[in-house]
Amino acid sequence: MFAMRAASSIGLVSPGRGVLKSSPRCSKTHIPKRPEHHRNRNRFVPKSADFDLDALMPDSIEGDLEGLQEEAGANFDEDGVPLDYGDVALELETLKGKVGVVDRGAEKYKLLRLTGPAAVPALTEAGASMDSIESLLTLGPNQGKSIAFSEGKVATCYVQSGGLLVIAPASVADALLQSAGDDCMDLAEQCSFLSLVGPEAGALLQKAGVAGVMDSDVGTHQTFGFEGRPVVAINGGGELFQSTDATENKKNQVANLVVDEGVAGLLWAAMTNLGAEPVGTTALEKWVEEK
Fold first, then answer.
1. What secondary structure letter does DSSP report for 16?
2. I want to staple 163 with a disulfide (CB 3.0 to 4.6 A). Which of 6, 46, 115, 179 is the partner?
3. Alpha-carbon distance 287 to 199, whole Å?
């Protein structure tokens, strides 16, 4: 389904964002009419394609993520993130025995791009342990790890050729943004953050044509093309459990997807068409508590 290419030769996702409609997750109205979902349309990037992620500047959103979630019965929080789809207990069972797709939003956890000479000082100033930073510096592209911060916080950092992709609790993210200045970028306006959670997460990615990510070490990530836009698939989840233990995190079977906002709805629809069940953040939090 997806066209894969190594992330080592390209920079971090940084496309622009077109806004579909006014909502807690959008700051302006750009397209008054919801576009068609095009669930059966395939426009995949060939493996040989050499697209510049930083040059991808979509001026429209080709799938309405919030609209699809509404159709599935979502109840939203004040920020427009699905809390549940009507049956939290059933959603919790999905996470325990199948695979759910969860929209993580952009408030509790933030996606950051950290680059340049300020990266290491910013991690230190934000409270990262020196042992974690030194371990991170030994990694190469397509690798990553969980980093321990002060007050028991954990962020996950992924090495890419253009710098680090960071998934961090809001307090850690805010500290990094303040410390790094222009060398740190909040990706909320460019990307959506989805997670595939449950014992069948790896099999679903395999079915989609994204091979090897969940079979590799935690922190492994690859960039693939979907509908001509970039998506980063990550063997992750450390940020959920506030754990830096890679062995334990791998058992939890969490695949994080950082997706160009322009095709987030289409990707969500593709995942549900392949068998992932919509799950809200309420069930996800209960699942984490029971681990």
1. -
2. 115
3. 13
Radius of gyration of the chain (CA): 18
The verdict on 208 and 272 lying in the same domain is yes
Q: Is 216 a residue whose pLDDT tops 70?
A: yes
Residue 219: per-residue pLDDT: 93
Strand 163-169 relative to strand 109-114, pairing: antiparallel
User: Which H helix or E strand runs over 206?
Assistant: helix 201-207
| pTM of structure | 0.80
Do 207 and 286 fall within a single domain? yes
Q: Which of 186, 206, 238 is the C-terminal boundary of a domain?
A: 186
Total of domains in the chain = 2
Same structural domain, 116 and 164: yes
Tokens at 16, concatenated: 């622009």
Among 122-126, 250-254, 286-290, the range scoring the smallest mean pLDDT is 250-254
Domain holding 176, by residue range, is 109-186
Own/partner pairs for 36-40, CB < 8 Å, 24+ apart?
A: 37/63, 37/64, 37/68, 37/265, 37/266, 37/269, 38/62, 38/63, 38/266, 39/266, 39/269, 39/270, 39/273
